[in-house]
Amino acid sequence: MSSRKELIEKGKTVLGIEFGSTRIKAVLIDENHHSIASGDYEWENRLENGIWTYSLDDIWQGLRDSYQKLAFNVEESYGVTLKKIGAIGFSAMMHGYMAFDKNGELLVPFRTWRNGITGEASEALTEAFQYNIPQRWSIAHLYQAILNGEDHVKDIDFFTTLAGYIHWKLTGQKVLGIGDASGMFPIDPETKQYHAAMIQKFDLLVADKNYPWKLKDILPKILVAGENAGILTPEGAKLLDPSGNLEAGIPLCPPEGDAGTGMAATNSVAKRTGNVSAGTSVFAMVVLEKELKKVYPEIDLVTTPDGSLVGMVHANNCTSDLNAWVGLFREFAESFGMEVDMNQLFGTLYNKALEGDKDCGGLLSYGYLSGENITGVTEGRPLFVRSPESRFNLANFMRTHLYTSLGALKVGMDILLKEEHVQIDKILGHGGLFKTKGVGQGILAAAIDTPVSVMETAGEGGPWGMALLASYMLNKESDETLAHYLSEKVFAGNKGTSMDPDPEDVKGFETFIERYKKGIAIEKAALENLIV
């Protein structure tokens, strides 16, 4: 306790803050990369005028509140006021669209990754670049705004992601970590910069509009892990900590996306490694040895925080509908006067799923709170269906919702593993789906027919991963790679608990996924006929 107090007083700690879909979390780590304090703030995106968004007030209130709770945690636990920090890093949900004019004013409400409104732009850019440009990507949002004839486009001076926005306001630097930047516009793995030929193609596409900008001029500058990305300005310190206790001058590392922090948090930045982050959304990241043979709309090509090529399968929906059903069971229990511990409830229901039939007994569900690009569904319609012959019981019901949380992900992973024959030495799971020991882990292993490991640190998640990237910038040796730093200085001796796929589970999941793919027609019919 006394040594940690001294570390805090001397400013030897490192802070990571991540803006997730439902929670903003701040994590402070010590010199051994252990979390010593944290604070969080729950928030939700809202659907306004057909756009999934968070307001600027939401963003800054959430940032300040999560930091304030962390500072209180420090004072309560160690009896010291947090004033100095060795380094800070910010991360957030990738993609989306935040466009600003020359005065730094937001031109249109923040359009998050969750929106499925850029289909026309996505298809046109994929064709023009011969490179998959998903609807979530920032460049798709920009081009769709152009195709829509939106008036604000001519006034754009800068556009960026949520992490890039926070970093800019706290440091004055319009920069982005390469992993987050790779979700804005394609990256050339050789130069570790935006793909020059594609930049030229885009400028030619919009040349007739006579905008006063060129694309390269309004994109954030790219930095790789380990580079210094500026310092906390006095104005930035006040934004983060209105109490005035936090001192300016703290170095910041490049801001990153939640995919990059997931890779750092699971030691999955080396080639032939991968990780699956399963929460509100779910995505798999596999570090590739070479480029894919074909362009697949289901596979994004992004990068690690140090610039290696990554095949990413991103599904918009994972546990939200599953969590809603668990909430319904809580409401049921509470109506009988029972006090419900949510961790126990989740654990009980998840373990109940293991008693179910391997193929879920003929049940089917889609937890689509929002559209799902991988399966071609444009809007969300959560759906549960069964036939009169289905074996409808609690175990199969829970197993179905766990399977379907990974359904869209499996469709994409089957392309990487079965069509491109990508080799993976290890997959690590992290996020809420894996909190109940052995359940989500075993189901993911069955879905991708690959051993899955979960580390004790898996619950630390993205903000801890962001703190590791900030620590790497602060403490790395001159030529030390990120992969070496993580393997030798953070995860040495921590290989996690591995689980091999059960052959019967694999067979059952294959049966389920065929039902899932055929049933997409039902989901699309619900979209057409169930008017919100």
Automatic annotation (TrEMBL):
InterPro entries: ATPase_NBD, FGGY_C, FGGY_Carb_Kinase, FGGY_N. Transmembrane segments: none annotated. GO terms for molecular function: kinase activity. Residues 275-473 form the Carbohydrate kinase FGGY C-terminal domain. Residues 14-240 form the Carbohydrate kinase FGGY N-terminal domain. Keywords: Kinase, Transferase. GO terms for biological process: carbohydrate metabolic process. Belongs to the FGGY kinase family. This is ATPase. It comes from Dorea formicigenerans.
